[in-house]
Design goal:
Elements: E1 3-6, H1 12-23, E2 27-32, H2 40-44, E3 49-53, H3 59-73, E4 78-81, E5 86-88, H4 96-124, E6 127-132, H5 145-165, E7 170-177, E8 189-191, H6 221-233, E9 240-243, H7 245-264, H8 266-270
Length: 276
């Protein structure tokens, strides 16, 4: 049976995915910064679930989580980089320590975990790496520039990674959810302590105190978990997997706008080549 290692399992998509994997009788290494928040899963599934503390920004914990997975189950077949959080600030308002922590959690942590599981996957010539990004990895809204930067970075490295490891039998899937009814827009959302009045009508409209979307998001985490499992199991898995009707609409509109801009400026773009 396959072994999944999933980060950020305390709530939301991570927990829904862990539950779905275990309900199928598969092995799951369920992780969270506070391991007590996921301890109920190995109590329910003592033979197939292993709870491990994991702060993805702590490289030693990343290494230990993979070692524990290999020791208990023999290896990791599917790794899901789900842990992460949001950050709201106009670009000028962003605070350097907060931004550094954001990148450590949303980008460098997943990269460390990928590098930790790849030796085993290369040896077995099989495996799947699932990186949970966001529609914010395709376009950036006011106030979410730093968060989007982490997701654009994750998308870029995932794209290169898939071209490197597909010949070795390893697949990479980039999951791009829209708005889901999780804690992402609640306790997991952080923002700058600096506010600049000139941005009140742009980034300011999306500050936590002005955001009314929490609890009303259209996405169902349980259904998202099933979609991820379906993609991992498919021989024709996409590289990019959009989740949610809002994601399909928003990204469809963005791609259309980009294509229109490309066509409008095509002659100028072509004019920069050397004349033969």
């Amino acid at each position: 049976m396959p072994t999944w290692l999933i980060t950020g399992c305390s709530t939301g998509l991570g927990r829904a995915l862990a539950q779905a994997v275990l309900q199928r009788g598969w092995n799951a290494v369920v992780t969270a910064r506070n391991v007590a928040s996921v301890q109920d899963l190995p109590e329910l599934y003592p033979h197939t679930a292993l709870a491990v503390p994991l702060d993805v920004s702590d490289r030693s914990q990343v290494t230990e989580a993979v070692r524990a997975a290999e020791s208990r189950f023999g290896g990791v077949d599917v790794v899901v980089n789900n842990a992460g959080h949001g950050y709201r600030a106009a670009v000028e308002e962003g605070e350097e320590p907060d931004v550094a922590e954001l990148f450590a959690t949303n980008f460098f942590g997943p990269v460390d975990l990928i590098k930790s599981v790849l030796p085993g996957m290369r040896e077995r010539r099989s495996g799947a790496i699932v990186n949970v990004s966001s529609i914010a990895g395709r376009l950036a809204l006011p106030g979410s520039g730093y968060y989007s930067a982490t997701k654009f970075a994750l998308a870029g490295i995932s794209d290169a990674l898939r071209r490197e490891v597909e010949p070795l039998g390893i697949r990479v899937i980039l999951v791009e959810p829209g708005a889901f009814r999780t804690d992402f827009a609640g306790r997991s959302l952080q923002q700058s302590r600096i506010t600049i009045e000139d941005y009140d009508e742009t980034a300011g409209l999306r500050r936590i105190e002005n955001d009314t979307t929490h609890g009303r998001q259209p996405g169902d985490p349980a259904r998202a978990a099933q979609a991820v499992i379906e993609a991992v199991a498919s021989p024709d898995a996409p590289f990019r997997l959009l989740l949610g009707s809002d994601a399909v609409q928003i990204i469809g509109d963005e791609l259309h706008a980009q294509l229109q801009e490309l066509q409008a400026w095509k002659d100028t773009s072509l004019s920069t080549d050397f004349s033969e």
